[in-house]
Design brief:
The complex is a heterodimer of chains A (112) and B (113).
Chain A lengths: L3 E3 L2 E5 L4 E6 L4 E9 L6 E6 L5 E3 L3 E5 L5 E6 L8 E9 L8 E2 L3 E6 L1
Parallel strand pairs in A: 2-11
Antiparallel strand pairs in A: 1-3, 3-8, 4-5, 4-9, 6-7, 7-8, 9-10, 9-11
Chain B lengths: L4 E3 L2 E4 L5 E6 L6 E7 L5 E8 L2 E5 L7 E4 L6 E5 L8 E8 L7 E2 L3 E5 L1
Parallel strand pairs in B: 2-11
Antiparallel strand pairs in B: 1-3, 3-8, 4-5, 4-9, 5-6, 7-8, 9-10, 9-11
The chains are: A mainly beta (112), B mainly beta (113).
Chain lengths: 112, 113
């Protein structure tokens, strides 16, 4: 089942913050976050496995809610290099290690 | 840093022809995947491969598709009789273990004419 991402697109000025959400109607086994720049492959950012988990660095971090149905990616003090499409990928609660289903993506544009 | 290598980077083929897309995953990774992305759209799961067999496949991965790991290093996707709608960017990915992130290759852009 495909996760729902929001917003579809966001435009920031350098230094501003953004939050990207990824939600599912059912509990998930895990959530992955990837960034894809135009014409390139998706690049892994982080994976969250536990309900209530928060992970990441100061400027790019993510959380997974207690019910494991929603994850948010936080981009703080954005830089031009953050521009790209952000995808969440989810694994169902069956614990499959074999299939990641991606959301439709959030296009983030950071302007000077 | 280790990377996943895909060849060719771009392939143009006539409808009905067979194509083989090649991938060399990271050497100590155990899980292998093929995904595709139609221009500007989401990344779609095709198939996963573990322990020398298919673990899961999507409804897209019908009898026209097959995967092989012929020699312990290469991982190939074959499309037997290509259709126009198979035109997409095909990404190979690998992961070390089940709860690890995926490393994607740079993709093969397949154009069916």
């Amino acid at each position: 089942q495909q996760p729902v991402q929001s917003p579809q697109a966001v435009i920031l000025r350098e230094g501003e913050d953004a939050v990207i959400n990824c939600s599912s109607s059912k509990a998930l086994y895990s959530v992955h976050w990837y960034r894809q720049k135009h014409g390139e492959a998706p690049v892994f950012l982080m994976i969250l496995l536990k309900g209530g988990e928060q992970k990441g660095h100061e400027k790019i971090s993510a959380s997974f809610n207690e019910k494991k149905q929603q994850s948010s990616l936080y981009l703080t003090a954005s830089q031009l290099s953050y521009s790209g499409t952000y995808f969440c990928g989810t694994e169902g609660s069956g614990g499959s290690n074999y299939k990641l289903t991606f959301g439709k993506g959030t296009l983030l544009t950071v302007n000077p | 840093e280790p990377e996943v290598t895909q060849t060719p980077s771009h392939q143009v083929t006539q409808m009905g022809q067979e194509v083989i897309l090649r991938c060399v995953p990271i050497s100590n990774h155990l899980y292998f995947y093929w995904y595709r992305q139609i221009l500007g759209q989401k990344v779609e799961f095709l198939v996963s491969f573990y322990n020398n067999e298919i673990s899961e496949k999507s409804e897209i991965f019908d009898d026209q598709f097959s995967v092989e790991r012929p020699d312990g290093s290469n991982f190939t996707l074959k499309i037997r009789s290509t259709k126009l709608e198979d035109s997409a960017m095909y990404f190979c990915a690998s992961s070390a273990q089940g709860n690890y992130g995926y490393t994607f290759g740079s993709g093969t852009r397949l154009t069916v004419v």
